[in-house]
Design goal:
Rossmann fold, binds zinc ion, 11 helices, single chain, alpha/beta, disordered C terminus, 312 residues, 47% helix, 6-stranded mixed beta sheet
């Protein structure tokens, strides 16, 4: 960044948004970042006026950036916001995450709901399976959708990034999974009773940009990785490698895929509901209840008693 000047105010620049070929000082960065998110939201009709938005915040940089930018957009689109944080019961990591989210919610003055997975009869470490990360995803999706439906939110917003989408898209193209690829929408409308619309306002923002933003705004966030997350994500490394060679690749790639997905229309799969809990499912028992049953079998008798209590 030698001698570069901030494009907005002329002071010495500290960062460069390569995709946009713009250098900025720390003071001008947040407004620029927020204007990019606003542009995405309007261009792709991700959020509509007067919507009630449930914002999923884990405490990591991406979801923290999401909550803060939505706060900025709330007055412009007359949105009402509430944060949901899911405590997965992963020891110290979960305790720290919850603390960060509480601090953030207070700072942004957004009401906060914390759901504890243990209240549903199990924790992530109690689930005995090879890929524990997929259990986290299942539990989060289930609890967010359930809370949003019970409390009549219009949409659930998550902090999925350009990196997430680009890696996901490339992996599915390579695997020939067109069906999965077509689920790829910055706004995925509800497709069945009991399923709340999902929105991803940061789908054009890279994780690097999110980090610059939360640091410039001095927002609290947890830099620690979940102890269960895999040591590296090879698909993300690949798309970032391409991005290094061709600035803007990731954003253009996800835009292109979203366009294809939107033009191809939705294939409506037959919808089932879980025989145990009544939530949407792809077979007779939903993925969340399957996890719960797994942890009961593996867990202590005490956990089993709590779990049975929940079923009744
Ligand atoms: Zn500046
Ligand atoms: Zn279920």
């Amino acid at each position: 960044m030698k001698n570069a000047k901030c494009k907005k105010c002329g002071k010495p620049a500290v960062v460069k948004f390569r995709t946009y070929r713009i250098s900025l000082c720390e003071a001008c960065l947040p407004a620029f970042y927020e204007s990019l998110v606003e542009r995405s939201v309007k261009r792709h009709r991700i959020l509509r006026e007067n919507e009630r938005v449930l914002v999923a915040v884990s405490g990591g940089k991406d979801s923290v950036a999401l909550a803060s930018t939505l706060k900025n957009l709330a007055s412009k689109l007359n949105l009402s916001l509430e944060i949901i944080h899911i405590n997965l019961g992963i020891g110290e990591y979960s305790e720290k995450s919850e603390e960060v989210v509480r601090e953030l919610a207070e700072m942004l003055e957004i009401p906060l709901q914390v759901e504890h997975l243990s209240d549903f009869g199990f924790t992530i470490p109690a689930v005995r399976m090879r890929k524990v990360c997929s259990a986290c995803g299942t539990a989060k999706r289930y609890l967010m959708n359930r809370y949003a439906r019970l409390h009549r939110f219009d949409v659930v917003a998550t902090g999925h990034t350009c990196d997430d989408f680009a890696a996901f898209a490339l992996k599915n193209i390579a695997g020939g999974n067109l069906e999965w690829l077509l689920k790829f929408q910055p706004r995925a409308e509800s497709f069945a009773e009991g399923v709340v619309t999902k929105v991803r306002p940061l789908f054009e923002r890279t994780e690097e940009e999110n980090l610059l933003y939360v640091k410039a705004k001095k927002l609290p966030f947890l830099a620690d990785k979940c102890p269960f997350s895999p040591p590296k994500d090879e698909w993300k490394e690949i798309v970032r490698e391409i991005e290094r060679k061709k600035a803007g690749f990731m954003r253009n790639f996800v835009r292109g895929i979203a366009k294809i997905a939107a033009e191809s229309g939705e294939s409506v799969a037959s919808v089932k509901y879980c025989k145990i809990c009544g939530e949407i499912a792809s077979s007779d028992v939903c993925a969340f209840c399957k996890l719960r049953l797994r942890s009961v079998v593996a867990g202590s008798e005490n956990e089993m008693r709590r779990c049975t209590g929940y079923f009744m």
